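new request in #modeling-help
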Amino acid sequence: MVAAMNGSAIAASGLRKAYKDKIVLDGIDLNVRTGTIFALLGPNGAGKTTTVNVLTTLLTPDAGKAVVAGHDVATETKAVRTAIGVTGQFASVDDLLTGAENLLLMADLLHLPKAEGKRIADRLLDRFDLVEAAGRLASSYSGGMRRKLDLAMTLVGKPQIIFLDEPTTGLDPRSRRIMWEIIRELVADGTTIFLTTQYLEEADQLADRIAVLDQGRLVAEGTADELKRRVPGSHVRLRFTDQYALDAAARVLHESTKDAEELTLRVPGDGGVRSLRALLDRLDAHSIEAEELSVHTPDLDDVFLALTGHARKEINAQ
Amino acid sequence: MNGISASLADSATMLRRNFRHTMRNPLALFNGIIMPLVLMFLMVYIFGDAFNVGVNYADYATPGLIITTICYGISPTAIAVNSDMTTGFINRLRVMQVSRGAVLNAHVIASTLRSLVAIALIIGVSFLMGFRPSASFTEWLGVIGIVALAVLAIGWLTIAFGLAAKSVESAGLIGVPLMILPFLSSAFVPADKMGAGARQFAEYQPFTSIIETLRGLLTGAPSAGSAMTAIAWCVGIALIGYLWARSTFTKRG
């Protein structure tokens, strides 16, 4: 395949999917290079899971073509399935089996010899720090442990390409960091990762390239830095007690924008300690006192606002 | 590994998993046995003598209780299948190339074996309560055949329902009509003693022909007519359930 020779792990063009009259995917083009992390960023209902389901052969698109690991998802389902691993949006572990049994179940279904299955299961338990919990039922696991077990189950088949649908949604910050670490290690081993996320920070931390999905369309694609350049930068917001102080501050801080109703001033800046100190020093020098200060960094809402011209809408996923 | 042996190996693997589930969630099996037992005590000990059915009431009620036992024990199957679907476990298996047959067959076999264990217990207790069948060896084989067919029919329908249901809660609802239907059949009182409407419903609904067939076999007076009707119902329901389950399994993403 041409795509495979170009080093593409995933190539899709013109993917469309509608349920009755509701358009879920409205012409999606994707290209993911082998050995990289690609993040599909978007709010609930944007079409992230549908995209994953199409690319992983679980759903047939109404139109368009997708080639995964050099095979057409529509006609070479078997070859695609052999090359990929999928970790769904909800940790799909078997609650009534232990961690070790879950992994051995995967090994059996992949028809691995017993000894090899056992060896792989032990190695994955060790790698994901689940050795102590290996003999306990998965129903007793914490959210972070379930996600790790879920991913470990996907890895039993040694996939070349791994799809992770919102791998850290609902996890506490510590578990999220552990998951990020695991994902980075996978790519270091040469695996290609396609992940979906609602968090700009997650895409920023992990992805080589990010595509922003909104209501079934890709509204932007690029590296994290390229995307951020298109988003209004971080800013500091100062709130004042009265109109007089607000006006005085606006005169001193030329680059700022004033909101007279809210009595706030929006000052562009990265929110770092050094620039904050300089900002406060300037106000002090003019004897202006701010009542409240807050630092804002661009989040998904800002990205959306900048890229789509509308705030992100929550649409219930089908 | 070729297709058939791979499918057999997968079926065995999935069946082992479902057995583990049953052993680790004994409450499901227990509910499926305790409820029919309570019903048996109520019907045979408390109400039985007041019903004038023309024969020993334990002999009359046992065939109905056999079918009721299937109905009372089936909810866990719907719930198990639905939770496999809604948690994404089935999607995981689909991406792994595990055959559709393996996943669904394992659920049907596990469900059938659970039902048969419960039915064996119920028949055992019914002997203690005065059940005295006069069936010959071949008639007992017929009983086993009809019971197995009924279990398969209800099993496939339940699995299809479990796959199609949006949530575990709604999957469990399949048990409700199944628990009521035996009362609207000739399970506990003859249909011709019911009020108009209920009588016609009871006469023509599938459970009545299945129960009448079992009753005939167990009392040594089998009726070929009701047996044909019962077999036709069971095969028809099983087929509809199977086809519905198959298409839902493939479609739902």
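bot summary: The CA atoms of residues 8 and 33 of chain A lie 4 Å apart.
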